[in-house]
Amino acid sequence: MTWSDTSSTVTPAGRQTYFFLSYAHSVPLSAAARPDTDFWVNRFFQDLGAAVRRTARRTGELDVGFFDGLVDPGADLKRALTDALSVTHVFVPLYSPKYFSNPWALGERDSFHSRLRGLPAGRAARHVLPVLWLPLSPWEERPETAQALELARDPVDRADYAENGLRALCKLSAYRRQYESLLTALAERVVTVTESDPLAPSRAATPASSTVVDSGDTPLVITTVTPHGSRWRPYGDQHALAVADYVAATAERLGLPTRVVEIAEARTRAPESPTVVLVDASVDPGDARAAVDGLPRWAVPLVIAADGARGDDTPETIAGSLQDARFPQVLPVREIVEFERSAPQLVIEARKLFLRHGPVDPPDGPAVPRPRLRPEGPSDVPRGKEER
Description:
Blueprint: E1 17-22, H1 39-55, E2 63-66, H2 77-85, E3 88-95, H3 103-113, H4 121-126, E4 131-132, H5 143-149, H6 155-171, H7 176-196, E5 220-225, H8 243-253, E6 258-260, H9 263-269, E7 275-280, H10 285-292, E8 300-304, H11 314-324, E9 331-333, H12 336-357
Parallel strand pairs: 1-2, 1-3, 3-4, 5-6, 5-7, 7-8, 8-9
Helix pairs in contact: 1-7, 6-7, 8-12, 10-11
Organism: Micromonospora coxensis
Region (Disordered): 358-388
Protein name: FxsC C-terminal domain-containing protein
């Protein structure tokens, strides 16, 4: 995710918050995995909110905190996050190895930083209170992690915190005292900054239109087979986003670059990219199969039934037709909750199959001579050709 430099001087609406929690989403490990794969992030958010509430004096005017788990699944997530970042006083990033390579998390950080431009460096830094969520290996250390360790006042607590990260301290009862101490210290700093040096509400930078990030990953291609094109919204007012954009947002939150394209362009890109195909159940089964004909074996389809087709057997008919064509994981979904649950697994399955079956040709470049064990010299001259 990239962020545009288009912050507005218009005062944003909505109640202000003491803090905004930012983190890199975890990848669900199986189709049976719980939808809230970041369970401990949610637990920490609740604990920090309670600690802030015990100390704060302005809870009648301000909400305590915000993180993306509070956003309705059908909402426009980028807009909701931008709105929240525009009215928060303190940004609390949960640093981990994945945080610094996750474009979604870094986008949130850049968005909040857009509100700090023009402030003295010392004052701006007060409004960012990082936490070491998962420890980084020595070769991954960054200046930001040193700032996160400042949260621990006691040398013993700091040692446990640096070695294990706050997530482990949150999970394990053996570290309850250290966890409570760090939680209290963070809550006090959040309240002190908010109430002694409030940040005036201002419109944060909003996401740019491009969702492709040069992260080293091959962009995930997302396409649709429907008369409505990539703007297809089978769940109507229940989702602010088109289903293709929802899957793209899911992929971005997991740190994967994406491209939403029409089916014709998908046929061109799929041989070199992981691919997700969202199939409208109202399409004739023969037409659906013809539309995906020629896509590589790692393309992962999902058949989605529109509201009017929920009592029809068309989704199963299309799924059966695609399975006959040897496409993997062809699952029909009807209810919106089924679609939301399937989106992360759809993304992960597409990437996994691409890594397993996709092209492995080496990049183009100059030919490199094969290494030789024997030294070059007279002994390399063919027998019978020695110089006399």
